[in-house]
Specification:
The protein has 411 residues and is α/β, with parallel strands linked by helices. It is built from 15 helices and 13 strands. The chain binds pyridoxal-5'-phosphate (PLP).
C-alpha cells in the first residue's frame, strides 16, 4: 500500500521464489513499521461468550468494549430463535439472496424491519460494511459529488471510493462548513451528504435536523449510517432519526444488526421502489451468500425484545450516566459524547496502548482505538457500557480505570 513501492512492487501473484522473497520482505517491514508506531494490531481471543464479564487470559474481567449495548447477543430468547431456525432451516442459506438463498427467516426479518422502522420496505445485507459499499455507488457516481463528515466510518469511505464521485469532507458536525461546500459546487451537480447518526468512535450525535434542512435546501441526498443508533436512540429505539423526529423527511437510511441488536448483518430501509432498485444494483447484495437463517431469525427476535422491553434501554442509559459521571469526576477528558460510547482521550497511540494494558492488569478489558480508525493524535480508550452491567461491576471498573489512569500518567 505504500506509495513509494507502487510501480516497482512485484505482482503478488507471481509465484517465483524471488518474488515471494520480495513479498516476505514487504510483509516483515510493514509489520515492523506498524509496531514502531504503536499501530500494530493483534487479535485478542476471549475465552468465553461476550457479556459484562468475560474470561480473558485465564481470568474473569469486566468488558467495557462491546457494542452489544442491550445485552441481546446472549439473550435467551434471541439465542433460542437462532437454534430453532438452525434446526428448521439448516446452518447455511445455500446461495445468494437472488438465487435461492432467501429463506423464510430472511423474508420475515425484512418485514419486521420495515414495520419497526415504519417504512415501506427493507433490504438485509450481509454486514454494515457490505451495505455501505453496495449502496453508496448507487446513490451517486462519476461526475457527482460526495460531502461526508470527517469522522465517517471506513466502510462509508470505501463506498465513496467505489462510487468514483468527487469526495470532500466537512468538519465534524459542522453544518456551516458543509453549507460552504454546498454553495461552492455547481448547482446542478448530483450531490450526496453522508453522516453517521451516532458517531461510533466519539459517541456524539450528528446535527441531523440541520443536515436534513441543508439537503433539502441544496437539493442533495442525505445518507445516514445508524449502525450505533439502532436499538438505543429514540423513544422506542428506532434510532437517531426517531430521536430527531425526522421520520418521513429522511426517505431511506441504513443501520446494522451487529451492535445493539446483538447479532450480525445490516439493513437499508426505504420505499418499496428504492429497495427493488438496490436489490437489482447493489453488488455487495447480489454477489454474496445470504446470511445464515439463524442470524436472520435472531435479528427478528432481537427486534421483538427491543420493542417489548424498554426497560433494557432505561438500564442502558442509567448505566451510561453512572459510568460517564464516574469517569468525568475522576478527571478524564472525554469526547463530547451523549451516548453509551464513552471515549477517554489519550492522544498518543503508545500511551493509549499502555493505558489499555494497565486496565487489563486491573481487571478491565477496554481496547485502545488508534489511527487509522481515529485521526492522528486522537488515540483513545473507547469505553462502552451496556444494559447488562451491574452497578457493582461499574464501581469495580471505575476503581480499575482510576488506578490505570494514575499509572499511565493520565491523572
Ligand atoms: C460497525 C459499523 C459499520 C459496519 O457494520 P458491520 O455490520 O460491523 O460490518 C458501518 N458503519 C458504522 C458507523 C459502524 O460503526
Amino acid at each position: 500500500m505504500q506509495s513509494s513501492h507502487r510501480g516497482r512492487a512485484p505482482p503478488l501473484w507471481d509465484p517465483t521464489h524471488r518474488r515471494i522473497n520480495v513479498l516476505n520482505d514487504h510483509v516483515r517491514t510493514t509489520l515492523q513499521q506498524l509496531a514502531e508506531q504503536s499501530l500494530r494490531r493483534a487479535l485478542s481471543p476471549l475465552e468465553s461468550a461476550t457479556g459484562p464479564i468475560i474470561t480473558y487470559a485465564g481470568r474473569p474481567v469486566i468488558l467495557l468494549s462491546s457494542n452489544d449495548y442491550l445485552g441481546l447477543a446472549t439473550h435467551p430468547e434471541v439465542v433460542q430463535a437462532a437454534i430453532a431456525a438452525t434446526e428448521r432451516y439448516g446452518v447455511g442459506s445455500g446461495a445468494s439472496r437472488l438465487v435461492s438463498g432467501t429463506l423464510p427467516p430472511h423474508a420475515s426479518l425484512e418485514l419486521d424491519l420495515a414495520r419497526f422502522k415504519r417504512t415501506e420496505a427493507s433490504l438485509v445485507f450481509g454486514a454494515g460494511y457490505l451495505a455501505n459499499v453496495g449502496v453508496i455507488p448507487n446513490l451517486v457516481g462519476q461526475g457527482g459529488l460526495i460531502i461526508a463528515d470527517r469522522l465517517c466510518h471506513a466502510s462509508l469511505i470505501d463506498g465513496c471510493r467505489l462510487s468514483q464521485a468527487d469526495f470532500r469532507v466537512f468538519r465534524h458536525g459542522d453544518c456551516a462548513h458543509l453549507e460552504t461546500l454546498l454553495r461552492r459546487r455547481a448547482s446542478n451537480r448530483r450531490t450526496l451528504i453522508i453522516t453517521e447518526g451516532l458517531f461510533s468512535m466519539d459517541g456524539d450525535l450528528a446535527p441531523l435536523a440541520d443536515l436534513v434542512v441543508l439537503a433539502e435546501r441544496y437539493d442533495a441526498v442525505l445518507y445516514v449510517d445508524d449502525a450505533h443508533g439502532t436499538g438505543i436512540m429514540g423513544a422506542t429505539g428506532r434510532g437517531t432519526i426517531e430521536q430527531f423526529s425526522l421520520e418521513g423527511r429522511v426517505p431511506f437510511h441504513m443501520g446494522t444488526l451487529g451492535k445493539a441488536l446483538g447479532g450480525y448483518g445490516a439493513y437499508v430501509v426505504g420505499s418499496h421502489d428504492f429497495v427493488q432498485y438496490l436489490l437489482n444494483m447493489a453488488r455487495s447484495f447480489i454477489f454474496t451468500t445470504a446470511l445464515p437463517p439463524a442470524v436472520a431469525a435472531a435479528a427478528s427476535a432481537a427486534l421483538t425484545v427491543v420493542e417489548r422491553e424498554p426497560e433494557r434501554r432505561n438500564r442502558l442509559w442509567a448505566n451510561r450516566q453512572y459510568l460517564f459521571n464516574g469517569l468525568r469526576n475522576q478527571g478524564f477528558r472525554l469526547t463530547p459524547t451523549v451516548s453509551p460510547i464513552l471515549p477517554v482521550l489519550v492522544g498518543d497511540a503508545a500511551k493509549a496502548s499502555a493505558f489499555a494494558d494497565r486496565l487489563l492488569t486491573h481487571g478491565v478489558y477496554a481496547t485502545a482505538i488508534r489511527p487509522p480508525t481515529v485521526p492522528d493524535g486522537t488515540s483513545r480508550i473507547r469505553f462502552t457500557v451496556t444494559a447488562a452491567h451491574t452497578t457493582d461491576q461499574l464501581d469495580a471498573a471505575l476503581q480499575a480505570v482510576m488506578l490505570a489512569g494514575r499509572e499511565t500518567g493520565l491523572l
